[in-house]
Amino acid sequence: MRAAIVAVGSELLGTDRLDTNSLKLTALLAEHGIELVAKSVVGDDEAWLAAELTRRLSEVDLVLVTGGLGPTEDDCTRAATARALGLTTRFDPQLEATIRRRFERMGLVMPEVNRRQAEVIEGGVVLDNEWGTAPGLRLSAGDSTLWLFPGVPRELAGMMERHLRPWLERRAPGGSREQRVLKVSCVPESTLEEQIAPAYREFGREAITVLAKPGEIQLRFWALGEPAQRQRRLDEIELRLRRLIGPAVYARGEEASLEETVGELLRAAGQTVVTAESCTGGLVAERLTRVSGSSDYFLGAAVTYSNTLKAAMLAVPPELLAEHGAVSEPVACSMASGGRRALGGDFCIALTGIAGPGGGSEDKPVGTVHIAVAGPSDEEVVHRRICYPGDRQGIRSLASQVGLEMLRRLLLKPTA
Question: Which of 19, 141, 345, 361 has the smallest number of Cβ neighbours within 10 A?
């Protein structure tokens, strides 16, 4: 089964409104193994929308439409659908009564303009909307099925579960589709692609998707069938991917974060962390404290933007700063060791760099960041230099990710 999604609303063609409804529908289709081949956004124009629906109905088995079912003149989805299908609309008094009762339960009198929402297309199945006043419709169009949903996200979410999910479950090819996600930290996308190539050959290229952003990659993989069958298949794929990638896999699950994983490792080890930050301005500390219960392992931070404070708070030798400059490996390592001693943590993550857009040089271009992590022993300091050609926000974000990943790798090392 192939599907298309059409989002209706001129506001979605601007810059201040996102079409989040399509994302919800996409996830539900994927869960049931339905191939989504197209998404489109159409303004509040009856002729344009009718043409778009005619086109999509000729191409796919399932068309899902959101928006344009309200009571105002620019809500043209019903009229455009009738036009595309060559059908007429009729007024449904019982549906009007239902809408009026909804208003009454809210302590309101229904405006007469809302009577437009009681117009239904001949042959359509009315979809009850207990979350709002706009009913949906399901219509057959030759070999295709067309669904009309309201555009209010809360109403769409409820109606998807009430009406669309059961319909899909009865028609899902080969059982429902289930997704699993592995998260990988600080590995280039091209490197990861080479590492997992054997899994593509074993399980099929279509079963595994790579979604990359700076510092993190999501590996999404899928399985079809009955629950037990899906779980076995997902376990097989996950085990193979983990073996191919190694310790760069830091978590399972789309909602998992690197800061949560680091926190779990610190808590399990009974150890603590502090940060000494310059160019990141406390971002690593902020990420660590996003996690509920982080007071178990996070003690505090020193944001030392100036050389004066690096020397005063972290005991970075002034001669080291003079010789190498603040953005250097020796200074980063000194910040980490000094921060650990000054703030009392078992570990300290230190970062110093040039986030831009100005301040770079030929030797130290914008995007250069030195990151060091000091461990429980003063001699145990690891360092990494990155040079990321991004904007200020991107450079700071990547640096914080690398710092957390460096700490995670240290925590994974077996203790003597």
Answer: 361
